[in-house]
Amino acid sequence: QVQLVESGGGLVQAGGSLRLSCAASGRTFSSYAMGWFRQAPGKEREFVAAINWNGGRSYYADSVKGRFAISGDNAKNTMYLQMNSLKPEDTAVYYCAADKFTPRGYTPTRVHEYDYWGQGAQVTVSS
Q1: Which of 1, 29, 52, 58 is positioned for an S-S bond with 33, CB 3.0–4.6 A?
Q2: What are the angstrom distances between the C-alpha of 18 and each of 82, 83, 99?
Q3: How confident is the model over 17-74, as pLDDT tens digits?
Q4: 49 near 67, Cβ under 8 Å?
């Protein structure tokens, strides 16, 4: 059973930074795709960033491109989302997700393409 646990959320002023962590257990996370999504109150869950560690590239939503960066630590089986220059519109619950199987070279960016989800971490950006 794959388990994902997010941490690192919190309250930050606009222009500040936060780093989210997603600790994976149950398998070696570096073999498949993983991603970050977010959901603001009253809105649908939306794609933020994703990467296929197995030969794929990373992708970012246009709204976060140049400000957010996805990375991973194989030794810790942990994925990170570094968020810089945060804006009030980045306020949401952030979820990490993992795919059960990902073709080499393909990076999924849609909610239904992911099989495992964390519990979410609240990120609040004040103006």
Answers
A1: 52
A2: 6, 5, 25
A3: 999 999 998 877 667 899 999 999 999 999 999 998 877 789 999 999 999 999 998 8
A4: no
**96, 35 in Cβ contact below 8 A?**
yes
Helix (H, G, I), strand (E, B) or coil at 30: helix
Q: How many CB atoms are closer than 10 A to CB 2?
A: 14
Q: Which residues 6+ apart lie within 8 Å of 126 measured at CB?
A: 11, 12, 13, 14, 88
Specify whether the CB–CB gap between 32 and 98 falls below 8 A: yes
Burial of 95 (0-12, 13-18, 19+ CB in 10 A): buried
Contact between 74 and 30 under an 8 Å Cβ cutoff? The reply is yes
Order the strands of the 3-7 sheet from edge to edge. Answer: 3-7, 18-25, 78-83, 68-73
CA angle at residue 101 from 51 to 123, to 5 degrees?
40
